[in-house]
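Support request, please re-run this one:
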Amino acid sequence: MEPTSPTVLLVDDDSDNREVVREFLREAGLEVWCARDGAEALASIRVRRPDAVLLDYIMPTMDGAALARALRESPATKDIGVVMVSGLSEAFVRPVCSDYDVFLPKPYSPDQAVQALTQAVRRRGAPAA
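Re-run finished. Output below.
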């Protein structure tokens, strides 16, 4: 990781997954907060802007593709790094949504998640908070 680790918004509708991933990201030294879906994530970002978003592709209300698209369309959020997570292949996801920086296939290790988040932040040039 960089001297200052990126701040991360974790977006996943599965509460068990959120807890496990949040814990291992925190153990890796990242500052993490969570949202249950894309709509909740957008509301959270209005209050506190992360350096990166780790988001599940399939979610109710507002899925990962819609959230990634909304982030890229807004000047205030277009430079947030986006890591798309899915059990589906990237060959399936990419034609539907290309608004992410890094694709992370499930299952993934804590090290892979941290590496993907760091890479997404670097690609966007977002300052680490």
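Residues 110-124 form the longest helix (15 residues). The CA atoms of residues 43 and 123 lie 24 Å apart.
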